Amino acid sequence: MGEVVNLRQARKQKARIEKERLAGENRALHGRSKAERERDRLTSGRTEKFMDGHRREKPGDPDRH
Questions:
Q1: Residue of 18, 21, 20, 16 lying closest to 8 (CA atoms)
Q2: How far apart are the C-alpha atoms of 40 and 18, rounded to whole Å?
Q3: Which of 22, 26, 52, 65 has the fewest other C-beta atoms within 10 Å?
Q4: Residue 54 in contact with residue 47, Cβ under 8 Å?
């Protein structure tokens, strides 16, 4: 005969594993130092300014149709 499995314990174990997986994803996504966040903010700001400066039509340009 097969092994007897307590479904309540199996359900709790599955929830623990899922919770740990989600925590790992969050650590990878949000677990950055202040210096890393500042570097990314500056890089994205520089990129946006570069792209805005190279547009053919400027936003708010009165000659734009």
A1: 16
A2: 30
A3: 65
A4: no
